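Before the break, one more example. Copy the sequence into your notebook; we will annotate it together after we see the structure.
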Amino acid sequence: MEMQEFDAWLVSLKTSIEGCDVDAFLDLFADELLYRESPFSAPLKDKLALREAMQKVMPLREDVAFGYEVISVSGDGGWAHFELQFTRQGTDDPVRIDGILQARFRSASCIELNQWQERLEPGQGDLMRDFDA
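Here is what the structure looks like once it is written out:
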């Protein structure tokens, strides 16, 4: 994996997430995959499971912003820091996610995506106020 290849994949990831485009998001992954939102969650193991999960969450997001910074690239994958912000549809509730992702590839398709993330959501008002200070 070269830096340019990983960056191009992350640009496509950003475009699909910001556009709430489930199909474009799925195009970035192999048919058989391991997708983990956290090291403690059970992995999604194929595109059908990933589609079902994304169809539940992506349509509920508005004003989506996704940013990233590549940390490193080696072998068959790379690491990146990411930030995701959005508003829940119809509620104006802001959500902020700050995390690290590790992606592994076969050809241009992601076969494994692991995430470690911190999520700030409504009900954590004191935390959001502290981060904004």
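The mean pLDDT is 91. The two ends are 39 Å apart (CA to CA). Try to locate both features in your own notes.
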